[in-house]
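This part of the workshop introduces the protein records we will be handling. To make this concrete, we reproduce a full record directly below.
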Amino acid sequence: MSGKTPKTRVAPLPRRLAAWSFGLSLCLIAALFLPLVPAQARTSRIKDIVNIEGVRDNMMVGYGIVVGLNGTGDKLNNSPFTQQSLIAMLERLGVNVRGENLNTGNVAAVMVTATLPPFTTQGSRIDVNVSALGDAKSLQGGTLLVTPLLGADGVVYAVAQGPITISGFSVQGESATVVRNIPTAGRIANGAIVEREIDFNLASMGQVRLSLRNPDFTTARRIARAIDGFLSVETASATDPGTVLLKKPAGYKGTLVDLITDIEQLPVEPDQIAKVVIDEKSGVIVMGADVRISPVAIAQSNLTIKISESAQVSQANPFASGGQTVVVPRTDVSVNQGDDVKLGILDTGVTLEELVTGLNRMGVSPRDTITILQAIKASGALQADIQSM
């Protein structure tokens, strides 16, 4: 008999039991983290839901001339302003052509548009869009001459010039024409030079207003509370559903630009009203997650009327002594109301998912859904606003 203590041997778990235990552990871990995912997914950064007062784009527009076209420019009879602009331009260059009959087939009058981004400095380059103003067929191969770009105040802020790049073409033969995209509109990358800056000193300001892109009372107050909680001082206040007033705290070490940089990354859960947006032309329906339906019954019938016409020929029998051939029109009308007409009942507090699932089960098309939603709204059972595009 040996004096060694016998070792206790633990039998391994069966493979099925071990796999079940591992799967149970994963389920428990997923259950712990699952409630956290929707809460994080619903939040947005402040910079994504607000605009800073004064930080905005500025629209510019100008009238110019494009030259170098291969006979696809404006016609003289249909676009007289093109000839007038060409004469005025040549006179500024010292060429007198008044009274002459000019051919404008290689010239086109265009409108030049551009957007001046905020805080753009003098000498920077921006993109411009060029669009034909007359009856030019194509701007391919054309070059825009010096064109001043004016703001809403009539002041020149940039000057554009350069070759135009278009994404379409037009090929015409004697009996057929092939057109791809829009050959009468193009773009010049970095085609304009900024000549004048818009003065706006954000760093020296003591307060600024945050403009909500989707005004809402609840969202505005949540933004103000998130900022105050981050700075541990009451410095933000919601003045109306679309504006939050942000003041620089007295003890804050930094400019207003630093303050905006610190608070724009804060997460906020935006709120919105229940709304249904419909477009009857295309049959598009967009419904918010907060749309609710009161108890209501819905029945939808597919009524189809089919009319078919055919010609029946009646003629005399063979070897008949007389007779003539007569074409008799035949019209058949059939009405199909659908055999699977169902009455659907929606309970109180039906969510968006349940509403869509119920309508799909009833076989309702998007266009019929628009009519049903309007009817539910008229009955007072739809707790949401309907906006038609």
